[in-house]
């Protein structure tokens, strides 16, 4: 384990809920090395998704520091974070989050277009071929099954060749056959492109495939003092 | 039994409240309120005219003559039937003060004036204002200010000097006179004895207002008077229909505004349809569940029909309340803004009319999406989405019936068949064209989003993709905005065309002045003076009498030829010995020189054709109480369009020999002449001949334009109600799309897009839809404008780009505004929150 690619230092996340402000993450200190695959496990509501959002810059810490790829992203504003993500981070969600008004191909090409990549569409095609959807490129998300949509989402996340791939229960909405296929694709991608993977999962067998597993309990890394 | 069940389910569903229905309710309420409001004001004016009939007329009845006073015999008759009489003389003249000469409409009255009501002055009363050694006069404040006259200042009418002793606020009997070319001055008739203004042959109207004994039979009295003085040029009117012109005008404008309001209801209908559709979409789970429980399509349809019916009742009531309360609350300002009396109160007819329009149009537009609720299968629980396609035949039929009811109702209620059918056709055509345009835009957006050329232009591509997406609000936005803008564009085109027709085309060819009341012994001097003036390019003059065509070939003229403007009231009549230069005959021959035989007429060719007159027909023309029977011996081309001199009737000189008359002249001024030249001509003639009245064409055009502006304003207000409804639909569409925008923004942010780029994409999306609606509106509005100009106004049409451009830009602006209100939240929200709530 050499270079640290993601690091959180005493990261707190406090959100205003219905019953006042709640501390969701309570002082997380964690670092991820380049090339590592980290499994995030823990009971529902323990803060796994929130932690992943912090890593991806989709949420900002209330207190503490976050750095990625050697850059401190704590103080970046919304646009700064968006710009930082371009080409560097891919995110896969449990509910896919494809843009419903765009075809599979357009969805996959989109992040590369935003990043100003010249041959975005050609690369998007290759990527869709790679996830086995070469024949469904012109389909809209609503015309695809859940497993197919997640494959598109995966292609979209992986196409810009991000250094970091964040996946939040990517198989949570899928049946076991489709889920297994997605996981094969994710680990395959990681192996081929050498991306760093952070995977939130409920499934012990998936966690077991990761090089390291961190368990969250009630907003803290399990084993750290309250 | 099934109905009871449907009602039961409907009640349960409605318990959730009306939150999702504000667009539905606002659209319906706005449209209904506009129609009810216009109808209320119209009824108020009609009631005011009926109720105030006698005051407006200035008496229970009125008898009018043209260019003459009543004969002693006529006067005796009037005095005998009336309990009190008042004689009024009405004519145009020049107010002369120092070097200023301004046209005025003089009303010369006797001591009994006014028989009813009172003339309101800014200060003091009329009776004392008209007395004095130098006789007193009162005038319209605008006129006094224009001349620079203060109370106590002197001025002249003809040769007579007056002192200004009052400024008129309101005349009780002003609404019946029709359109006045100039502001009013009131003097005593006695004071005009030495003015030289009421000499034989001058153009004046006399009227005798009568107070009649109570319970007199007006109809019988009218027949008696008309029988006794048949064909003497006596015109009778009474309080039963005091101001037929105004009544007709108000009725027409009211009908027109209600039709504009109906277009607004159609815009609202788009919102209604969209609201019902999205409501049903949200209810798919419920419907599918009902299906799994074995509910038939009919039950589901009924369930939602009942809910819609409740909402329609609510929305229409809301609109009616608004349409009633607003005019009632604004009664004072409305009354003072109107030139006629209005009794603002609760009238059932406009309310029923508005309710009828509201209910039929709401169901018409709700039925389309409603009919689809039947088609939802139990499987929709897992698949989602309302199926598209056509509604079943019976619902299509019901929609046709509703549409027919709506159009038929509009025809019946507005009383203007062609205008109502034209409006209905226009609205339907516009909706179809807009739907096609929206469909085309969706197609175009979808295919161009995939264009290679657009690759890399993320904002534009995302905008196009979301316009072209299935179930986007594109259709709704283009229909509502497009129809609203079409109405506005049509009104704008008509308005600017009318203005252009008046203010641009006319003056280049029109004379600068009309001079009237030129006495026969003045005409040579008059012409000589003008000939000496280098700014004058042309002077036409002709003797002028006025006459009424009473019979055609011995039969009542109106019974033979029907209602035609030539037969309505008195017409200018001239005579000429020889055929004037530049007069073209289309048939027959001009009478020989020194012709002394039976009277002959040269008649205007176009009007003759319209009246069905041909060579050899005999006309009875009453001139100054004397009947002349003359036969048509030639037809000639008369151009009435350039405001030059045009007479329908030209007689041979011998036919009217001895009848007192004056000359009328048109004077053309070199357009390149010094700006002061017209004023100089006016001064010169007025100084030499104080009795001659000059009517400046420019000033007259100004008055016409003013009247037109008022009508255009009323129409624009009605059209704005349409646009406001359109805006509500837009806001509704934008609001219902907000969730989609929030989501889109969050995903774009995850993928690395900046807020500027996202905003740009949303703005482009709105601008493209606005532009599509605006462009269709220009085309459809242009066609509507052309149709109205061509078929209603009978006037040429030219596309007015400035007005049109404003419309498109307005359309884009409105969509931008409506949608930008709803992108603030998407832009501000953090992606984590948005995406998490969707997990
Ligand atoms: N927007 C929010 N406001 C307040 N509380 C939230 C919000 N989103 C999530 N939470 C709460 O934060 C906690 C952690 O949520 P999450 O990170 O989604 O957990 P996990 O992914 O481990 O199930 C939960 O208790 C959840 O209820
Ligand atoms: Mg989670």
Structure description:
The complex is a heterodimer of chains A (226) and B (839). With 226 residues, chain A is α/β, with parallel strands linked by helices. Chain A has a single domain (35-59, 75-221), classed as P-loop containing nucleotide triphosphate hydrolases (Rossmann fold), CATH 3.40.50.300. Helix content of chain A is 33%, strand content 28%. In chain A, strands 6-7-8-3-9-10 form a 6-stranded mixed beta sheet. In chain A, strands 2-1-4-5 form a 4-stranded antiparallel beta sheet, covered by helices on one side. Chain A is globular, with a radius of gyration of 17 Å. The mean pLDDT of chain A is 90. Chain B folds into 4 domains: 1-52 and 245-387, no CATH class; 54-241, no CATH class; 430-505 and 700-839, no CATH class; 520-690, no CATH class. Chain B is built from 27 helices and 21 strands. In chain B, a hairpin with a 2-residue loop joins strand 17 (618-623) and strand 18 (626-636). The radius of gyration of chain B is 34 Å and the shape is elongated. At the A-B interface, helix 1, helix 2 and helix 3 of A face helix 16, helix 23, helix 24 and helix 27 of B. The structure holds adenosine-5'-diphosphate and magnesium ion (MG). Adenosine-5'-diphosphate is lined by residues 15, 17, 22, 24, 42, 44-50 of chain A.
């Amino acid at each position: 384990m050499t270079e640290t690619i993601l690091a959180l230092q005493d990261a707190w996340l406090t959100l205003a809920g219905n019953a006042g402000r709640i501390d969701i993450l309570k002082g997380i200190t964690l670092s991820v090395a380049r090339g590592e695959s980290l499994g995030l496990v823990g009971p529902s509501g323990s803060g796994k998704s929130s932690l992943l959002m912090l890593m991806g810059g989709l949420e900002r810490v209330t207190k503490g520091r976050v750095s990625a790829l050697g850059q401190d992203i704590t103080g970046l504003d919304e646009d700064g974070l968006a710009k930082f993500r371009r080409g560097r981070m891919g995110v896969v969600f449990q509910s896919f989050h494809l843009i419903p008004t765009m075809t599979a191909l357009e969805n996959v090409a989109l992040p590369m277009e935003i990043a100003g990549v010249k041959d975005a569409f050609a690369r998007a095609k290759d990527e869709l071929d790679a996830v086995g959807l070469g024949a469904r490129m012109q389909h809209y998300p609503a015309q695809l099954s859940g497993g197919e949509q997640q494959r598109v989402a995966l292609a979209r996340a992986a196409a810009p060749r991000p250094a970091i791939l964040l996946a939040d229960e990517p198989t949570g909405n899928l049946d076991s056959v489709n889920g297994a296929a997605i996981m094969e694709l994710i680990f395959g991608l990681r192996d081929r492109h050498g991306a760093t993977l952070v995977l939130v999962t409920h499934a012990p067998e998936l966690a077991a495939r990761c090089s390291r597993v961190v368990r969250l309990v009630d907003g803290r890394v399990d084993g750290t003092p309250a | 039994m099934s109905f009871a069940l449907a009602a039961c389910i409907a009640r349960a569903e409605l318990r959730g409240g009306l939150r999702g229905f504000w667009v539905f309710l606002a659209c319906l309420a706005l449209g209904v309120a506009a129609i009810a409001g216009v109808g209320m004001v119209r009824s108020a004016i009609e009631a005011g005219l009926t109720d105030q009939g006698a005051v407006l007329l200035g008496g229970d009845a009125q008898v009018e003559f043209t260019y003459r006073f009543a004969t002693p015999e006529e006067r005796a008759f009037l005095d005998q039937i009336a309990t009190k009489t008042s004689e009024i003389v009405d004519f145009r003249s020049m107010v002369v003060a120092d070097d200023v000469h301004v046209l005025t409409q003089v009303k010369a009255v006797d001591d009994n004036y006014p028989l009813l009501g009172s003339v309101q002055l800014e200060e003091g009363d009329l009776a004392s204002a008209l007395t004095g050694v130098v006789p007193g006069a009162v005038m319209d404040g605008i006129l006094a200010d224009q001349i620079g006259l203060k109370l106590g200042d002197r001025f002249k009418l003809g040769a007579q000097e007056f002192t200004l002793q009052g400024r008129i606020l309101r005349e009780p009997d002003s609404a019946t006179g029709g359109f006045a070319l100039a502001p009013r001055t009131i003097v005593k008739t006695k004071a005009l004895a030495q003015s030289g203004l009421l000499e034989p042959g001058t153009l004046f109207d006399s009227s005798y207002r009568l107070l009649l004994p109570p319970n007199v039979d007006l109809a019988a009295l009218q027949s008696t008077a008309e029988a006794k003085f048949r064909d003497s040029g006596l015109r009778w009117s009474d309080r039963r229909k005091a101001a037929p012109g105004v009544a007709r005008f108000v009725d027409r404008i009211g009908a027109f505004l209600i039709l504009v309001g109906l277009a607004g209801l159609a815009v609202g209908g788009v919102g209604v349809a969209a609201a019902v559709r999205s409501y049903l979409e949200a209810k798919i789970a419920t419907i599918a569940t009902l299906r799994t429980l074995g509910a038939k399509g009919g039950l589901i349809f009924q369930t939602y029909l009942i809910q819609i019916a409740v909402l329609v009742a609510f929305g229409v009531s809301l609109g009616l309340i608004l349409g009633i309360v607003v005019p009632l609350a604004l009664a004072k300002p409305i009354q003072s803004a109107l030139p006629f009396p209005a009794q603002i109160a609760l009238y059932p007819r406009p309310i029923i009319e508005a309710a009828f329009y509201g209910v039929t149009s709401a169901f018409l537009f709700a039925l389309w999406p409603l009919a689809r609720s039947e088609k939802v299968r139990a499987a929709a629980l897992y698949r989602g989405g309302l199926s598209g396609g056509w509604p079943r035949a019976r619902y299509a039929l019901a929609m046709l019936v509703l549409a027919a009811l709506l159009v038929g109702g509009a025809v019946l209620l507005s009383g203007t068949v062609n205008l109502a059918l034209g409006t209905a056709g226009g609205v339907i055509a516009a909706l179809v064209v807009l739907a096609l345009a929206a469909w085309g835009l969706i197609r175009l957006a979808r295919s161009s989003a995939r264009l290679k050329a657009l690759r890399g232009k993320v904002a534009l591509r995302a905008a196009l993709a979301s316009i072209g997406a299935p179930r986007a609000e594109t259709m709704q936005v283009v229909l509502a905005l497009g129809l609203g803008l079409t109405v506005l564009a049509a009104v704008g085109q008509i308005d600017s065309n009318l203005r252009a027709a008046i203010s641009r085309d006319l003056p280049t060819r029109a004379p600068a002045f009309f001079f009237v009341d030129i006495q026969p012994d003045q005409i040579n001097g008059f012409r000589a003076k003008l000939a000496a003036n280098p700014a004058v390019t042309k002077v036409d003059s002709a003797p002028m009498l006025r006459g009424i065509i009473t019979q055609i070939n011995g039969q009542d003229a109106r019974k033979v030829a029907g209602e035609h403007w030539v037969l309505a009231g008195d017409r200018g009549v001239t005579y000429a010995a020889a055929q004037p230069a530049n007069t073209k005959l289309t048939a027959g021959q001009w009478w020989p020189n020194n012709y002394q035989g039976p009277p002959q007429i040269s008649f205007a060719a176009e009007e003759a054709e319209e009246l069905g007159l041909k060579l050899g027909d005999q006309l009875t023309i009453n001139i100054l109480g004397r009947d002349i029977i003359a036969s048509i011996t030639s037809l000639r081309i008369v151009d009435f369009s350039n405001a030059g001199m045009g007479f329908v009737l030209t007689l041979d000189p011998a036919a009217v020999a001895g009848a007192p008359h004056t000359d009328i002249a048109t004077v053309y001024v070199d357009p390149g002449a010094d700006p002061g030249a017209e004023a100089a001509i006016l001064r010169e003639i007025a100084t030499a001949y104080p009795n001659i009245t000059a009517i400046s064409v420019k000033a007259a055009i100004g008055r016409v334009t003013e009247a037109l502006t008022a009508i255009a304003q009323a129409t624009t207000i009605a059209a704005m109600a349409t646009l406001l409804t359109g805006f509500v639909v837009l806001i509704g569409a934008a609001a219902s799309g907000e969730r989609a925008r929030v989501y889109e923004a969050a995903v774009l942010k995850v993928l690395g897009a900046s807020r500027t780029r996202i905003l740009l994409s949303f703005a482009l999306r709105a601008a493209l839809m606005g532009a599509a609606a605006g462009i269709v509106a220009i085309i459809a509005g242009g066609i509507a404008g052309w149709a109205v100009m061509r078929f209603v106004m009978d006037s040429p049409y030219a596309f007015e780009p400035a007005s049109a451009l404003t419309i498109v830009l307005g359309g884009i602006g409105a969509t931008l505004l409506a949608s930008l209100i709803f992108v603030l939240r998407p832009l501000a929200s953090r992606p984590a929150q948005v995406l998490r709530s969707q997990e």
